[in-house]
Amino acid sequence: MSSFPCDPNDEGRLALDSASFREAMSRIAAAVHVVTTDGPGGRMGATVSAACSVSDDPPSLLVCLNRETRIHDAVLKNRCFCLNTLSDDHETISDVFAGREKLDMPGRFAKGEWTPMATGCPALDTARLNVDCEVYSVTEIGTHSIIVGTVADLRMTSPGKSLLYVRRGYKSLDT
Ligand SMILES: Cc1cc2nc3c(=O)[nH]c(=O)nc-3n(C[C@H](O)[C@H](O)[C@H](O)COP(=O)(O)O)c2cc1C
C-alpha cells in the first residue's frame, strides 16, 4: 500500500521526463478552441487547448502557442487574435486546424463560416464563444510563447454542448 502523498516505490509514480509530463497533462480535460488571426502577418488559425482567462480588470486571457506553428509569428505581427471555443459538433474543425488533414490555411477556413470581429480577426459563426483580443504581452518559455491578450470584442451563444479533449480523445459536455 502506498503512503500519501508521494511514495517513491509507488508504481503509479513516473520519472519526470517529457513523455511522462505529456501523459500527465493528457489527463486534464480541456476545452478546445481555434485561435485565429488576420492582418499584415496573414490569415491563420490553429487548434489550441492551452487557453484560459487571466483577469476581468482588464478583461484578458492567455493562449500558449508553439513557436513552430505558422500562426505564432502571424499573431505577433498582427498584434491580435480571436479565441473561438468549439462545440461538440466541431471535431472536424478541430482536426483540420490541428493540421491533421494537411490542408493549407484557405482550405482550413473553408470548413466553417467566419465573420471579422473588432480587430479584424475571423470569428467562427457557430462557435460557443468568440473572444477577440489585442496582444498585450508575449513571454517565451521553452518551445512556446504565452501570449496575453486584452479583450476588444466578445460574442456568446446560448447554453449548449462544448467540445473537450482528454486522454487524446474528444468528449462532449453540457455547458
Ligand atoms: C486538441 C488539441 C489541442 C492543441 N493545443 C495546442 C496548444 O494549446 N498550443 C499549441 O501551440 N498547439 C496546440 N495543438 C497543436 C496545434 O493545433 C498544431 O500544432 C497546429 O495547428 C499545427 O501547426 P500549423 O498550423 O503550423 O500547421 C493542439 C492540437 C490539438 C488536436
UniProtKB/TrEMBL annotation:
Transmembrane helix as UniProt keyword: no
Segments forming domain Flavin reductase like: 25-172
Record key words, sorted: Oxidoreductase
MF terms (GO), sorted A to Z: FMN binding; riboflavin reductase (NADPH) activity
GO biological process, one term: pyrimidine nucleobase catabolic process
Listed Pfam families: Flavin_Reduct
Highest taxon listed in the record's lineage: Bacteria
PANTHER family noted in UniProt: FLAVIN REDUCTASE, FMN REDUCTASE (NADH) RUTF
Organism this protein belongs to: Roseibium aggregatum
Stated name of the protein: Flavin reductase
Record flagged with keyword Oxidoreductase: yes
